[in-house]
Amino acid sequence: MLYIVIGFLWLSICLYLLFGGADFGAGIVELLTFNKRDKIEVRQIMDSTMGPVWEANHMWLIIFVVIMFVGFPQMYSLMSTYNHIPLILMLLGIIARGTSYTFRHYDVINDNWEKLYSKIFIYASFLTPLFLGIVAGSAVSGSINTHPTNFLEGYVYSWLTPFNISVGIFTSACCAYLAAIYAIKDAAIESATQLVLIRKSKQMMLFVILSAILVFAVGMYSHLPIINWIYKSPIGTISVLLSVLCMCLVYFSLVKNKFNFIRFLAASQIGLFLVAGTEGHFPYLIYLKDGSSMSLLKDHGADKTINCLAWALLIGSCLILPFLIYLIIAFSRKKKATTH
Length: 340
Hints:
The protein has one domain (about 1-340). The protein has a two-stranded antiparallel sheet. It has helices at about 1-30, 35-50, 60-70, 75-80, 85-105, 110-140, 150-155, 160-185, 190-220, 225-230, 235-255, 260-280, 305-340, and strands spanning about 285, 295. By secondary structure, the chain is mainly α. It comes from Rhizosphaericola mali. GO terms for molecular function: electron transfer activity; oxidoreductase activity, acting on diphenols and related substances as donors, oxygen as acceptor.
């Protein structure tokens, strides 16, 4: 039962990155689009692509938090204590972008308030996954100091490090990349909007590559065994190779205007990134500055709690997933009918 809970834990954060991350990416792509006409095109297609189901995406984050709180309370307590600043900023970002999107989308008057809502939306879209990545980086980089001598050592330097920031930038880059790729198929074939999205997809792909190089460079400079984390097992090595292959196929699809499998390829690429980045640590989830670590196989809740949680997740997934899939299919059919 413990492995079922761990599987759902990994799956929830993976799905949040693939779906909720693409939602964040909609604002990031708009932020990184500097041509005024292109920005309008990007905004319109992102609203129609991400808008209808964006609220449902946060379900995966909620599931992740619940699993941590119920199944791994010691880890939850440690992370929420020493990372409370980036976690609060991340939650504020989720609230800010959600409310600002609603206000700007349904505001009947195009005035300065609407411009303010747009700025809040696009900057919150970038900063929210940035802080998510920072928290993830702090868990594996050994930067959390559980015996601080002052406030800064315990609650600022535990997460504010070059490596953690580089992981945050990489997370934001992945979100922007997914959003640009996902939106291509919703644009009319060979329209100005689709051409803009193809160009933005290539730019976001470059953003992912550069930010990945940054993570490796900063990790090596910080004397972290980042190469060993990823390449010490065949699974990590194969995941990286398959991820690179998927990226090459995505680029080929963009060049040849073949978009039938482009969403699947992009999602697989980012999912394989996550496999490569997490498999090398298993079963350890948190590394501390004093050299100790916390394991998913040892530092979990009571066995009865884990069993109940596993059954709740299995039953809940049977109830939720079919309706979520129906929701996505229903909106995709509606968009196809509107586009064609």
